[in-house]
Amino acid sequence: MTTARPPLIELAGVNKHFGELHVLQDIDLVVGRGEVVVVIGPSGSGKSTLCRAINRLETVESGRISIDGRPMPQEGRALAALRAEVGMVFQSFNLFAHRTVLDNVTLAQTKVRRRSRADAERRGLDLLDRVGLAALADRYPAQLSGGQQQRVAIARALAMDPKALLFDEPTSALDPETITEVLDVMRGLARDGMTMVVVTHEMGFARASADRVVFMADGRIVEDRPPEEFFAAPRSARARDFLAKILQH
Ligand SMILES: Nc1ncnc2c1ncn2[C@@H]1O[C@H](COP(=O)(O)OP(=O)(O)OP(=O)(O)O)[C@@H](O)[C@H]1O
Ligand SMILES: [Mg+2]
Questions:
Q1: Which of 86, 91, 39 is nearest to 206 (CA)?
Q2: Is residue 217 part of a domain?
Q3: Does ligand 1 lie within 6 Å of residue 43's CB atom?
Q4: Which of 8, 32, 121, 166 sits in a 20 to 30 Å window from 197, CA-based?
Q5: Percentage of the chain with pLDDT > 90?
Q6: Given 161, 189, 204, which residue is the final one in a domain?
Q7: What phi and psi values does residue 136 have, to the nearest 5 degrees?
Q8: Any ligand 1 atom below 6 A from CB of 16
């Protein structure tokens, strides 16, 4: 599906294998600036690999991946710079356990963005405020709930001023009562125009905040449509089966 907005993330003809397994098969995907794309599909369909390929955490064998019109470099300094433009939020928050919350959101700013410590702290506190955690800046990750830790991880990603954010099942490790607070932050980002690719089983988020739903199965994009169309009438048998299963929960 094409998008009316200027493209920010573009994949064309992307292929990847893990040994015999063809995990990404001829993937074409364009994410427009400010667009929110939710990626769903059965376990093993390639959703995480897709996210990781966009950020070059995985190499691909063929095809093009570009961010804001520039191809993703293979390695080196250019890769580090471009990777900083696409933030990633994982299921496991990956915070630095022995650093305070504020340090977690300032370290990469001083190292990668070369900001002064004072500037980085100012920006870090603003972002912690935005995710509702300014009061907890001096705590350590282990002293926070899972939902709070995930909000710190989002603030840390935002601190790099990324052009886009990738989320890989950001709420699936959380207790039900803290899922909402993370989804609220994500809904706010979507409203503010952040470009987002979100792998999630939260269909409420997909319905309310996604511009498009991408349904993957067996390494392919099977459907790529607005959520209201996709949920009302999935075209493929694979998507109908998948929805029937997850909506039973
Ligand atoms: N590093 C790896 N080496 C070998 N196989 C891998 C590797 N990473 C993923 N795979 C395999 O590739 C396929 C796609 O994995 P991927 O993690 O992208 O799926 P997914 O759609 O994110 O699944 P889930 O919903 O369970 O997170 C799976 O069959 C997985 O076992
Ligand atoms: Mg996954």
A1: 39
A2: yes
A3: yes
A4: 121
A5: 84
A6: 161
A7: -105, 15
A8: no
**Is this structure's pTM higher than 0.90?**
yes
The alpha carbon of 29 and the centre of ligand 2 are apart by a number of angstroms equal to 18
246 close to ligand 1 (CB < 6 Angstrom) = no
Residue 109 CB–ligand 1 contact under 6 Å: no
CATH number at residue 60: 3.40.50.300
Shortest-distance atom of ligand 1 to CA 219: 14
Residue 191 lies in a domain: yes
CA–centroid distance, 46 to ligand 2, in Å, is: 7
Nearest 5°: the CA angle 117, 55, 127 is 35
Ligand 1 atom at minimum distance from 216 CA = 21
Low-confidence ranges of the chain (pLDDT < 50): none
**Structural domain that includes position 191:** 1-85+164-249
Could you tell me if 243 and 231 are in contact, meaning their C-beta atoms sit under 8 angstroms apart?
yes
Residue 91 belongs to some domain of the structure: no
Instruction: Please state at what angle helix 146-158 crosses helix 117-130, rounded to 10 degrees.
Output: 130
